[in-house]
Write a structure and sequence with these properties.
The chain is an all-alpha fold. 67% of the residues lie in helices and 0% in strands.
Length: 339
């Protein structure tokens, strides 16, 4: 991943800003689409369908372009990543939105860069981060504590069970991101994402059995709004969003592209208020400012390290795909980032 676009290659302004609009606002809207989709489709069934459909489309496209079939070792890595990032990460987000508003969900999920910084610190070979990152961690987790803390802190309290599932989902996604640095993945980033999507979708479908989601599933009961939201999650949230993200990484700096991590939670909060009538309580507004400020501090620091080669490379069977941590835990299936 280069820090800047190649000299002399300036993308058309309309295409450039259009791609940013997709990763800013389409990805930011995925939380609301999840809320609408699970109105009449049980959470694990919906999430399984989303990733399975995206995986089938991407796998078929990759094979049509002549990509080699993934090896057994590559499928095994995809299963681990699909389990951590799509089942544990996006599956947890989808389940939690039964009781947690979409905007609040986006704020808690925005903590993924915080978990990444913690895991980089305490993991094997980790180094103590600088004062700026430590302050960002304290600030970010304080914002989450404010958001899900006791009612005495002011405003409505977030459902604690749903909030804890979201915290776990964020941590699961971060662990998967770290594992993906050593995972054996196909050389093609699209094929790598396809295998992870298919593996994650299969795990979500299996989890729907003990959760009772298949027993509740009724095709005839699916509303037009839920069906449309699922389609948007597959096509716009996953395939289109990922395509724009990868293209931007090729034509501009990673630091500029990573600004989506600041915009997504704020946009999701506002969209939930405008479209779904979710309350914008003072507690949520203050917590959002604190969390986003912490994410800015940590992500900008990580981008600065990457620019000077301090970030650990992803080990793949070919030159590594670009690295990023998503803010929505399900915009995509990561091949070392996201779909």
């Amino acid at each position: 991943m280069t820090a800047n676009a190649p000299a002399g290659l300036r993308p058309p302004a309309l295409k450039f800003f259009g791609a940013f609009a997709v990763i800013y606002f389409v990805w930011g809207s995925t939380y609301l689409f999840i809320r609408f989709a699970i109105e009449t489709i049980p959470p694990f069934v919906m999430a399984g369908a989303r990733h399975t459909l995206a995986g089938l489309i991407l796998y078929g496209w990759s094979r049509w372009r002549g990509e080699a079939r993934p090896s057994g070792a590559q499928w095994a890595s995809a299963a681990v990543l699909g389990g951590l990032m799509l089942f544990g990460g996006n599956g947890g987000v989808t389940w939690a939105q039964q009781t947690v508003a979409s905007g609040v969900t986006a704020l808690i999920v925005a903590a993924v860069p915080l978990w990444m910084a913690v895991l980089d610190w305490v993991g094997p070979g980790g180094q103590r981060p600088g004062a700026r990152v430590i302050f960002g961690l304290v600030l970010g987790f304080a914002g989450i504590a404010l958001l899900i803390g006791p009612a005495g802190l002011g405003g409505e309290r977030v459902d604690i069970q749903g909030a804890l599932v979201l915290v776990g989902a964020s941590l699961s996604w971060a662990i998967g991101s770290l594992y993906s640095r050593q995972a054996r993945l196909p050389a093609s980033i699209v094929l790598a994402m396809a295998t992870q999507s298919l593996a994650g979708g299969a795990l979500l479908f299996l989890a729907a059995i003990p959760a009772g989601h298949w027993a509740r599933f009724d095709v005839a009961a699916i509303s037009l709004r839920s069906a449309g939201a699922l389609l948007m999650l597959v096509v716009a949230g996953s395939i289109l969003g990922f395509t724009c993200y990868l293209w931007l990484l090729r034509v501009t700096s990673a630091a500029r592209v990573s600004t989506y991590a600041y915009v997504n939670p704020v946009f999701a909060l506002l969209l939930g208020w405008l479209v779904a009538g979710e309350r914008l309580a003072p507690r949520a507004l203050v917590a959002s400012a604190i969390i986003v400020a912490a994410v800015v501090m940590i992500v900008s620091y990580r981008d600065a390290r990457a620019a000077v080669g301090a970030d650990a490379p992803l080990r793949t069977e070919a030159p590594p795909p670009p690295r990023a941590e998503t803010a929505d835990l399900g915009c995509a299936a990561p091949a070392k980032g996201e779909l």
